[in-house]
Design a protein that fits this description.
The chain is mainly α. The chain has five helices and two strands, in the order E-E-H-H-H-H-H.
Length: 114
């Protein structure tokens, strides 16, 4: 499947193999853990955020088969944009269309608990 990644202004060909699926689920799990801060100390929250960011960068690097130059550029990009891009690629790898992703974003914006 082709996935257009605005962050790089480029289309990437992604084969959703079992490995990519597993990595997608691991990335989603890391992102969910980052958003679950209830009962965690500040240090635990920082550790979880750092781990999620590393997961996002590695996920994008491996799934999109980024070059060293692209990976280096990714490390110098905005945190929110990087996380948003990783989520977008995850959703596409899980079979969601751009329209479904937009609808999901709107639903979450209306009620963040969904």
């Amino acid at each position: 499947m082709e996935i257009y990644v605005k962050l790089f202004d480029k289309k990437f060909n992604v084969n959703v193999t079992n490995k990519v699926f597993r990595e997608t689920m691991l990335a989603q799990k890391a992102f969910a853990e980052m958003n679950n801060t209830a009962g965690k100390s500040d240090a635990e929250i920082f550790d979880t955020s750092i781990a999620a960011n590393k997961q996002a960068v590695n996920y994008l690097k491996d799934t999109l088969k980024l070059t060293k130059k692209q990976t280096d550029a990714l490390d110098n990009m905005d945190f929110d944009e990087t996380m948003s891009t990783a989520n977008y690629v995850c959703y596409r790898a899980m079979g969601m269309s751009d329209e479904q992703i937009e609808a999901e974003k709107e639903k979450v914006a209306e009620d963040p608990k969904k």
